[in-house]
Amino acid sequence: MTVFHGSARPAVGRRQFLTWLTRGSLMVVSALAVGQIARYFAFEPTADVPTAIPIGPPDRYAPATLTYLGPARAYIGRDSAGLYALDAVCTHLGCLVEQRTDGGFACPCHDSHFGADGQVESGPASKALHHLALELDQDGQAIVDRGRSVAPETRLAI
Ligand code: FES
């Protein structure tokens, strides 16, 4: 049996100190990882964005064009069937996607790629970009409804 008296107590050895440091670091890293995982699963891409965003008269958008509108955080496209709104918010963790030269979209954050129709081409995103509802107000102005997704083929007739 070992008995210590006063200053005869042994100091913490170097090996023991490094073991504590390693364990402490692992606990901190684990806690941070758990926090990030919780953030990932709790993420809601459109929760903090106003729902109805006016985007001007529909004929402002020329045929066969795709225009990014920052306030709506959406690409407004016009094809032969009418006007549509494609959400620019990446379905992975909410960065804004950028249009590629071939008409598709790429996310600058983690390199997800989407086709021109918003379908996922490569992850980490696993869900397509949302198509957002468009409607006209009583003055004939188009409104993007960020709170309502629609089928990809939905158009606002012009
Ligand atoms: S936020 Fe777009 S790929 Fe991660």
Please name the defining characteristics of this protein.
158 residues, alpha+beta, Rieske Iron-sulfur Protein, six-stranded antiparallel sheet, four-stranded antiparallel sheet, 29% strand, binds FE2/S2 (inorganic) cluster
CATH class of the largest domain: Mainly Beta
Task: Write down how many β-strands occur, each being a DSSP E stretch of 2 or more residues.
Answer: 10
Number of domains: 2
Assign the structural class, choosing from mainly alpha, mainly beta, alpha/beta, alpha+beta, or little secondary structure: alpha+beta
CATH superfamily of the largest domain: Rieske [2Fe-2S] iron-sulphur domain
Shape, please?
elongated
Termini separation: 92 Å
The largest β sheet comes out as:
6 strands, antiparallel
| CATH topology descriptor of the largest domain | Rieske Iron-sulfur Protein
Q: Could you give the order of the helices and strands? A: HEEEEEEEEEE
Strand-residue fraction?
Answer: 25-35%
- List the total number of helices: 1
Task: Give a verbal description of the structure.
The structure is a single chain. With 158 residues, the chain is of the alpha+beta class. The protein has two domains: 37 residues; 99 residues, 3-layer Sandwich (Rieske Iron-sulfur Protein). Helices cover 18% and strands 29% of the residues. It has one helix and ten strands. The strands form two sheets. It has a six-stranded antiparallel β-sheet, with no helix packed on it. A four-stranded antiparallel β-sheet has the order 5-6-7-8, with no helix packed on it. The longest helix is centred in the first third of the chain and has 29 residues. It is elongated, with a radius of gyration of 26 Å. The mean pLDDT is 87. Bound molecules: FE2/S2 (inorganic) cluster.
